[in-house]
């Protein structure tokens, strides 16, 4: 994974950034400028620097303003276009990012970073095409967005053709980024063995890149190889010891393997390293749930959902399990409904069906919706006897 951001260490740079940002916002709004002395125009590179500053802070709205001003100052500046597109992708504006990056790749066909970013924008568009509407649960088969994956593969093919023309010292690193993106697309296509091979090739080319190791571990885990996934994540933790995200996932995998003695302190350290991370908090919650520590599990899972803005399907699933165990059907249903919004988790659909099948204080059973949820679980996992038994109980 390539990064655009350099870290700022000089004092006062944020004031410089704010001043330039104010100028950019004034231009965007069409505010007339009436200085007593005609000021020299601000360069695109200055706005790019401001965009990098705000992007590095995670303030993507301000980064978009700065990069937009950079593009207006110089419509062919590659750093401005690439920064704007990456920011658009982070803001979920996949169509705008695709337009910006298509323009950049036409201006600079040899720009590997632009091709990789374009692939990422197409991948985002694919994911967005498969998301249900707000408040909806995807009960039928998920479809749509395949054209975006085909386009993503084409742009990676174009990036690969550029590799022979770049210095040999950079070739391995750039090739690893291409293979990493191929792994993502193969996962989206459901081809886990090929995705594992792609991430393994990326890691061979760039063995110390923890992002690639994380992706490889996730894919190994999705394919059912917990032991390999845990070993891969351990490499990622050793490569980046202060990365709370890698360590949080490592703790989760250790817990799933039953090694709670090591998983607990790893999860606690992860939230210390990344105190405002919904992912780190949620994984500590999962570790606590698996270790049968419901109080800590609930605290951390609820914190993760709050930090994520109210929805985090993976962690909502475990909150649902806690609420179902406690007999709180209303909350359990809401949790499992959030967990099911991805349309890809058979367990979320099964437990949603189970919570809908039951009734409790002030909560009526909903057998029709329960049956729909059980059927969706079976579509995702044909060999799911518990879901089949649920349908039998409902006379389906």
TrEMBL record:
Q: Which Gene3D superfamilies match?
A: Tetratricopeptide repeat domain
Q: Where are the TPR repeats?
A: 44-77, 78-111, 176-209
Q: Which UniProt keywords apply?
A: Repeat, Signal, TPR repeat
| InterPro entries attached to this UniProt entry | TPR-like_helical_dom_sf (IPR011990), TPR_rpt (IPR019734)
Among PANTHER family, the record links this protein to: BARDET-BIEDL SYNDROME 4 PROTEIN, PTHR44186
Q: What is this protein called?
A: Tetratricopeptide repeat protein
Keyword Repeat: yes or no?
yes
**UniProt xrefs under PROSITE patterns:** TPR
Signal peptide (from-to): 1-28
